[in-house]
Amino acid sequence: MKTPTPEPLDVALITLRAAIAKLPKKKQDILVKWLAKWSGYISLEGSFKPEYVPRYRRGDIVYVDFGFNIGNEYGGVHYAAVLEHYNHKTSGNIMVVPLTSLEAGKTPADIAKDDLYLGSGIIPWTPLDTVAKPAQIRAVSKMRIIKPLKKGDDWARLLPEHLNAIDDRVRQTIIKAEQPASDCN
Asked: Are 59 and 77 in contact (CB under 8 A)?
């Protein structure tokens, strides 16, 4: 009697389980929680209506679940700033730059060269200094936004000078342009 060939999904799940088992316990717990959340996103995907979330504008600070990622890709739940000048209400995605806090005991001189120190008091509800991560910009589904999701939620926005500094760093990092954008024609 021939042994049945396992279904591709079964093989993938067995491989995933083995990969997770090799991780340190803390990372296993984080990944398992992410898989449960990701499953919820998959279930919600068909019924998600982006027009029911607020219209986010350039500079708005949102709280985003970047998920579990590999290598040095940014992951976890963090604040981020909206980069798009105009994001259509029905668009399911939005372009953001992740924001993080300056680690305790660190100074702006200690941050990675790709990161950008924005200062203190940037995010009104946290006293920590804020650092932008322009090398980690990405489009995220609006389903990943935890807050703000309604008018009563706390809202904050980066100042134009912060957004200009992020734009300059993106140009330097990605395009390697030394001159201002207006000179890049």
From this structure: no
Q: Is the pTM of this model over 0.90?
A: no
Q: What are the residue boundaries of the structural domains of the chain, listed by start? A: 8-45, 54-180
Asked if CATH classification 3.40.50.2300 holds for the domain at 54-180, the reply, yes or no, is no
CA atoms within 13 A on the CB side of 62: 30
AA identity, residue 182? S
Burial of 113-139, coded b for 16+ CB within 10 Å and e otherwise, reads: eebbbbeeebbeeeeebbbbbbbbbbe
Largest distance between two CA atoms of the chain: 73
Q: What is the pLDDT of residues 109-151, one digit of tens each?
A: 999 988 999 999 888 888 889 999 999 999 999 999 999 998 8
Question: Residues 32-38: contacts with CB within 8 Å, 24+ apart?
Answer: 34/67, 34/68, 35/68, 37/65, 37/67, 38/67, 38/68
